[in-house]
UniProtKB/TrEMBL annotation:
The keyword Transport appears for this protein: yes
Keyword annotations of the record: Electron transport, Membrane, Respiratory chain, Transit peptide, Transport
InterPro entries: NADH_UbQ_FeS_4_mit-like, NDUFS4-like_sf
Species for this entry: Teichococcus aestuarii
Protein name: Oxidoreductase
Length: 107
């Protein structure tokens, strides 16, 4: 097992594909990059690795707290830029039946 320190990634927690709201998206996560390649187990055929740090996800309320934790534990880290909120125009259901609309009917 390799003892070299893997680079950590500090990023905003993305919204789940199963949720439409913004709950639990304000936090920051510290996750580790894989230190070794994944390989297939000869007995089961499942993919695996000896690197257990990739399973670790530490959550923080602020970016500064995540950076302070990484510095205190001598973990090299990269900070990803903040996610940009998509610009969503609210529409009503009646817009689907508006006369002269440019988009095609999809169903």
């Amino acid at each position: 097992m390799s003892r070299d320190i893997a680079t950590a990634r500090i990023h905003r927690q993305p919204r789940s594909a199963m949720q439409s709201g913004k709950a639990r998206t304000g936090g920051w996560l510290l996750t580790f990059a894989p230190a070794e390649a994944r390989r297939t187990d000869p007995l089961t055929g499942w993919w695996g690795s000896g690197d257990t740090r990739t399973q670790l996800r530490i959550s923080f309320s602020t970016r500064e707290a995540a950076e302070a934790y990484a510095r205190a534990n001598n973990i090299p880290y990269d900070v990803e830029a903040e996610l940009r909120e998509p610009e969503i125009k609210p529409k009503s259901y009646a817009e689907n039946f508006r006369y002269g609309r440019a988009e095609n009917w999809t169903h």
